[in-house]
């Protein structure tokens, strides 16, 4: 009797292995690029969000500039953002000098454009806790 039970128990692994010989279809998992959290990434330069940040950058640029005339945003050529505790935007833009003097109250969007154009790089942070934009860095060249 003990021998019969021993033989039956020794056959169980063989039965399990015979079922394991069947081919299984495995789903192929393909890797895709996933943006690491907190890493900078490109965004559409024409998006309303980028346009608004670029306008605010030009406003601050005008406030800090020693030029007697206002500059106006003409085109955003590229934009990158990084989300940490703040949202940082790095924007490449073309701005143009207007004929409106800073001494006069002017609606910059309606100012007549002059000929001077500058290629600018702006770095702007946005703090969502207090809803404030700050121009961290700007550099412009002809």
Automatic annotation (TrEMBL):
SMART domains listed in its UniProt record = CY (SM00043)
Q: Fetch the Pfam families from UniProt.
A: Cystatin
Q: Where is the signal peptide?
A: 1-18
> What's in the GO CC field?
cytoplasm; extracellular space; vesicle
The GO terms this record gives for MF are: cysteine-type endopeptidase inhibitor activity
What SUPFAM superfamilies has UniProt attached to this entry?
Cystatin/monellin
Q: Which residues form the Cystatin domain?
A: 35-141
Q: Which CDD domains match?
A: CY (cd00042)
Q: Which UniProt keywords apply?
A: Signal
InterPro entries listed in its UniProt record: Cystatin_dom, Cystatin_sf
Family listed: Belongs to the cystatin family.
Q: What is this protein called?
A: Cystatin domain-containing protein
Q: What broad taxonomic lineage does this protein's source fall under?
A: Eukaryota, Metazoa, Chordata, Craniata, Vertebrata
């Amino acid at each position: 009797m003990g021998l019969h039970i021993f033989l039956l128990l020794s056959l169980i692994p063989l039965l399990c292995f015979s079922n394991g010989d069947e081919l299984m279809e495995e789903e192929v998992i393909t890797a895709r690029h996933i943006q690491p959290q907190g890493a900078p990434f490109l965004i559409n330069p024409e998006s309303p969000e980028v346009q608004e940040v670029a306008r605010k950058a030009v406003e601050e640029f005008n406030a800090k500039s020693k030029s007697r005339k206002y500059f106006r945003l003409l085109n955003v050529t590229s934009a990158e953002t990084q989300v940490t505790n703040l949202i940082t935007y790095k924007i490449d833009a073309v701005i143009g000098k207007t004929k409106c003097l800073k001494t006069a109250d002017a609606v910059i969007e309606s100012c007549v454009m002059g000929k001077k154009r500058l290629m600018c790089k702006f770095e702007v942070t946005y703090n969502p806790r207090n809803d404030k934009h700050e121009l961290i860095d700007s550099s412009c060249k002809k």
